[in-house]
TrEMBL record:
GO molecular function: integrin binding
Family: Belongs to the integrin alpha chain family.
FG-GAP repeats: 293-352, 353-409, 412-474
Protein name: Integrin alpha second immunoglobulin-like domain-containing protein
Signal peptide region: 1-17
One GO CC term, this protein: integrin complex
SMART domains, alphabetized: Int_alpha
Domain Integrin alpha second immunoglobulin-like: 606-736
Main location as per UniProt: membrane
Compartments (UniProt record): Membrane
Length: 1050
């Protein structure tokens, strides 16, 4: 029956949420009496089970419960098997009475419950991480896991097999640097767990053990083949990445991150990395006692966020590679909102952070649990569920659906209070999904441990529905009395019902009321039209619409819209049965077209033939320059400019259809445009209305802003396509389509610079044996240039450390401390040995050239080619005579990695993504020069020591970036000079003797020459004496002479 009239639109409540059905949920409550006991944490862990006879159950862990049949043990924890008729039965996994070697008090049986369900031989894993082993008077919290194969419900009446993975009689403690530490003694095996397939040949069971080796933490691997053969691998992580109290193994997962042929494992360490947390991705060794092989390390971003507390792995974007989902439930904006990080497998076996999802409620701890649900809505993409057990008073869970880009969007939020006003801690655990009601849709169980409840949520079948309004004649004549339209509807869905009752809400010209639908002799502008559809069959129905007389407004087109919905056909669950009823159907609105609108224009100014003959032209351009090339990272958006022109009669209902290829998306569009749908996984369709009518000689320009943030470096070019359509008649087919190519390039460079804290240090050669170490620093800085981002770079520093000797190596330099940081984040370094690396450093000659250019040589010429290479103690001794009285340049002792006699260390540091050109990485290396270790023969006739380190930086992401001659330097060296006291050069004895002899000969020759010249025969003296004598005789007075000169007598 059709209902029409002036009524409001009807939107049914079942379309407001997505396909988890809260109406038909089952709530399980702990069967234990609350009086006189603590909370049992019923619901702390959950798992689903179904047998080959379609008998299903929910397995619920209660790690603080008492076991009814073992009263002597205090709160060991237990498991409950709850049928779908709400009857729960206790499953005692360990009925042993051995109280001599084990202590099960507070062992937390049921802290982990996992199932690998195949309906025939399902594997069930239960762990008790606080189980203790007794040796004498000592208790060791080794942890214990239990393993069983369930073929039917009777399997849960038997004991489970203990998984004694650790030789608990040994290795409880270990001696480390003369200190006794716990080895496996506080291992807490089974704190986390993951079950995965082993190449279809069996199962991998990974058990997190965060307390191993003084809480460094580790993981243990158990493999079981289909034939039942087992292998246990316990790696040795004492000297690997974890530090004490890192809690590695707090969480664990696995996936095919880079290749379908190699499963890798991931474990979280929420307290590592200076309390920022980290996650390692690794493979197990072939045998126990060997180290794990770490391929990647993902570091947390905020202190105390507990990065890596939860982990999950699934393919979110259908690239056949699993993505890694990392929870940080203590991430804080105000207080413990929580955050979830999505890491996508990238090139060269690296991960790239693709998305961050933040919790919105303070104290909610969003990300405390994460579960991959598979494709729960059958849209072709996997979905995930995230728990926030402390949100509000009850807790909450969030359903996220993925798409072709791997971008998660929240489609449903469920609060625990929707099931019970007293529910608490809802979302602490989310089971792996399993179809337990045989409707081909996956169901989940969610734990609410603080109120001791578990909620079983079925999922609803999902359909995609499409509705179209079809008007064959396209236009209306001003003389028309009525017109006809078709409403065509079709629905499809995986495992959807064969028939679907729908309602079509038809709305006719709501603004102007110029048309109506006549039924039962009444005119109506809004009608509710019910019908029944068959799956995958398109149904079209004709409706006759009447026009009013004397319509004055013929400029505005008549608008007709239809919205399709359906009635909720939900039936109540049969509570007496163990299989609850199929849930109602829900619409996938992302893949559906539930509304259609058409605009019917009146014919105007189209000639006497009443036919509009238009001639439309379209072209595309962008705001890019230089050959339409976009530099990745230069801006987040680019403008797509659409030019439209009409050379004919008015064009009605003109539309432009633009095809935008992935990974481009829309940043903003004009009001006249709308995002239509993805025609396939890679093309987005946008439809724009252009004038009604678009008249002759009219130029229209529309601008779409395209989001380029998802464009990666492997994209070289993309083609955009546009075409123009109209309800008018086109007089030609030219220029109706336009294709434009956008090219993509990168502009990226990286530079390294280095300096020494002090360039010159002094030392005394006399006291060299008693001298202390000289501490000095080399500082390297790395900076990004260019507009494109750098996702990863590697910095390598080469440092000479030892001199090779015959019997042992002489330590010249020790690395005291290394500090690397970038944008406030501490970076981790890896130190490698470089025994002898050809061309590792700049040649010695280049170092000498640079040094002599800077050193004051008193303007003396220097011949550096006379330098003699010293390779051993014998060479020093044999060349002693050669280096005496040598020029200054040969008094230099060189310490660098180009010398084959030098042993070097290589510091390797992976640099985190450079967010901007202001991001600078600084590495400070504190070194100790062991001057006292240098043998005297090495410093014979040498008072200058040059120490050289070298830094190299390479861009690894984006790949294949070549540093050309025009780029910034990616290599640099730092030189430090150690200046000793001056050396007194010795003079040969024969030179001294010869000099004295020659001096005596010269003196004799000069004396003989003077004698021969009469130098010693003085006439004037005799004449003076004679004159004085005459004067004394003539005058007795004393004469005062003023001159010794007396004129010669003729």
């Amino acid at each position: 029956m059709w209902l029409c009239g002036f009524v409001l639109k009807i939107f049914l409540s079942n379309t407001l949420a997505y396909n988890l059905d809260i109406t038909n949920a089952i709530v399980f409550t702990t069967p234990q009496n609350l009086e006189g006991r603590r909370n049992s944490y019923f619901g702390y862990a959950t798992a689903l089970y179904t047998s080959s006879k379609n008998v299903s159950a929910v397995l619920i862990g209660a790690p603080r419960a008492n076991i009814s049949k073992i009263q002597s043990v205090l709160e060991p924890g237990t498991i409950y098997m709850c049928l779908l008729n709400n009857v729960c039965k206790e499953w005692i996994v360990d009925k042993s009475k051995d109280e001599i070697h084990q202590n099960r008090n507070n062992s937390w049986i049921g802290a982990v419950v996992l199932s690998e369900n195949n309906r025939i031989n399902s594997k069930i894993l239960v762990c008790a991480p606080r189980w203790k082993y007794i040796i004498g008077t000592y208790w060791y919290m080794n942890g214990m896991c239990y393993w069983t194969t369930a073929t039917n419900l009777e399997s849960f009446e038997k004991d489970a097999e203990k998984m004694s993975l650790i030789s608990i009689n040994a290795n409880q403690t270990t001696l480390w640097n003369n200190i006794w530490l716990y080895d496996f003694g506080i291992g807490q095996l089974g704190f986390s767990a993951d079950i995965s397939s082993a190449n279809k040949l069996g199962l991998n069971v990974v058990l997190g053990s965060p307390g191993i080796f003084n809480w460094k933490g580790s993981a243990v691997l158990l493999t079981e083949s289909t034939s039942g053969h087992r292998q246990i691998i316990i790696p040795n992580n004492k000297n690997t990445v974890p530090d004490f109290f890192d809690y590695l193994g707090y969480s664990t997962t696995s996936g095919f991150y880079f290749s379908k042929q190699e499963r890798l494992f991931a474990s979280g360490s929420p307290r590592g990395n200076d309390m920022k947390g980290y996650v390692i991705i690794y493979s197990f060794p072939e045998y126990s006692g060997e180290r794990i092989n770490i391929s990647n390390t993902l570091n947390g971003y905020q202190y105390g966020e507990y990065f890596g507390a939860t982990l999950a792995s699934c393919d979110l974007n259908n690239d056949d590679k699993d993505d890694l989902i990392v929870g940080a439930p203590l991430w804080t904006r105000d207080m413990d909102e929580g955050r979830v990080y999505i890491f996508m497998a990238w090139e060269n076996n690296n991960f790239m952070k693709d998305q961050e999802i933040d919790g919105d409620v303070s104290g909610g701890r969003f990300g405390s649990s994460i579960t991959c649900l598979g494709d729960i809505d059958y849209d072709g993409y996997n979905d995930i569920m995230i728990g926030a057990p402390y949100e509000g008073d009850s807790g909450a869970i969030y359903l996220y659906n993925s798409n072709k880009n791997g971008v998660l969007k929240c489609s449903q939020k469920i609060l625990g209070s929707e099931f019970s006003p007293n529910i608490r801690g809802f979302g602490i655990s989310i089971s792996k999904p399993l179809d337990i009601n045989n409707d081909k849709y996956l169901d989940i169980a969610v734990g609410a441990y603080l109120s001791e409840q578990v909620v079983l949520l079925p999922s609803k079948p999902v359909v995609s529905i499409t509705v179209d309004l079809v008007y064959p004649t396209k236009t209306l004549s001003r003389d028309s009395k009525f017109f006809s339209i078709h409403i065509c509807t079709i629905y499809e869905g995986v495992y959807a019902p064969k028939n679907l009752n729908i309602i079509r809400n038809l709305e006719i010209d709501p603004l102007y009321g110029r048309a109506m639908y006549l039924t039962n002799n009444t005119s109506n502008f809004i009608c509710i039209l019910p019908t029944t559809l068959k799956i995958s069959e398109r149904q079209c129905e004709l409706f006759k619409i009447h026009l009013k007389n004397n319509i004055q407004n013929v400029i505005d087109p008549i608008s007709i819209s239809v919205v399709v919905d359906f009635n909720n056909t939900t039936q109540k669950s049969n509570k007496s049965s163990n299989i609850f009823h199929r849930s109602s159907v829900v619409i996938n609105k992302l893949n559906s077209k539930t509304k259609d609108v058409i605009q019917l224009p009146f014919l105007l100014e189209c000639g006497s033939d009443d036919i509009c003959n238009s001639d439309l032209r379209i072209s595309l351009r962008t705001d890019l320059k230089s050959n339409n090339t976009y530099i990745i990272g230069s801006s987040s958006n680019l403008k797509l400019i659409i030019d439209i022109h009409n050379n004919g009669e008015p064009a009605y209902q003109t539309q432009v259809h633009i095809s935008i290829p992935n990974p481009l998306s829309l940043a903003s569009i004009p009001p006249a445009c709308m995002e239509s749908s993805w025609t396939n996984k890679y093309i987005l369709q946008v439809i724009c209305d252009v004038g009604n009518p678009l008249t002759n000689a009219t130029n229209e320009t529309m601008i779409l802003e395209l989001d380029t943030s998802k464009v990666r470096f492997d994209v070289k070019s993309l083609e955009l396509y546009a075409n123009i359509t109209t309800q008018s008649e086109e007089i030609n087919d030219l220029n109706k389509n336009y294709t434009m190519t956008i090219y993509f390039d990168i502009d990226v460079d990286i530079a390294i610079a280095g300096k020494a804290q002090d360039n010159v240090y002094s030392y005394s050669q006399k006291d060299e044996k008693d001298s202390q170490n000289i501490r000095f620093k080399h500082i390297y800085e790395v900076q990004k240039f260019g507009t494109s981002p750098i996702y990863e770079a590697v910095l390598m520093i080469e440092i000479p450390t030892y001199w090779k000797n015959k019997d042992y190596n002489i330590e010249l330099i020790s690395i005291n401390q290394t500090i690397a940081h970038m944008d406030g984040n501490i970076l981790k370094l890896k130190i490698n040995d470089l025994d002898h690396c050809k061309n590792c450093q700049t040649s010695t000659k280049k170092i000498v050239d640079k040094f002599i250019d800077e050193f004051d040589m008193n303007n003396k010429s220097v011949d550096i080619h006379t330098k003699t290479e010293i390779k051993s103690e014998e060479n020093f001794t044999n060349t002693e005579k050669l280096v005496k009285n040598t020029p200054l340049e040969n008094r230099i002792l060189f310490i660098n990695c180009s010398d084959p006699m030098i042993v070097c260390k290589q510091l390797e540091c992976k640099l985190i993504p450079f967010t901007s050109s202001l991001s600078v990485t600084q590495l400070i290396i504190t070194l100790d020069f062991k001057l006292s270790n240098i043998p005297s023969f090495m410093l014979e006739n040498k008072n200058i020591i040059l120490f050289v380190s070298k830094g190299i930086v390479n861009i690894t992401q984006p790949p294949n970036v070549i540093q050309g001659s025009t780029n910034k330097p990616d290599t640099t060296i730092i030189t430090t000079k150690f200046q000793g006291s001056p050396i007194n050069e010795r003079v040969a004895g024969w030179i001294v003797v010869l000099s004295i002899f020659l001096g005596i000969i010269l003196f004799i020759l000069i004396t003989l020459g003077l004698i021969k010249l009469g130098f010693f025969h003085r006439k004037k003296k005799a004449q003076l004496e004679a004159l004085i004598a005459v004067s004394n005789e003539n005058n007795p007075k004393i004469l005062e002479t003023t001159s010794s000169e007396v004129p010669d007598q003729e």
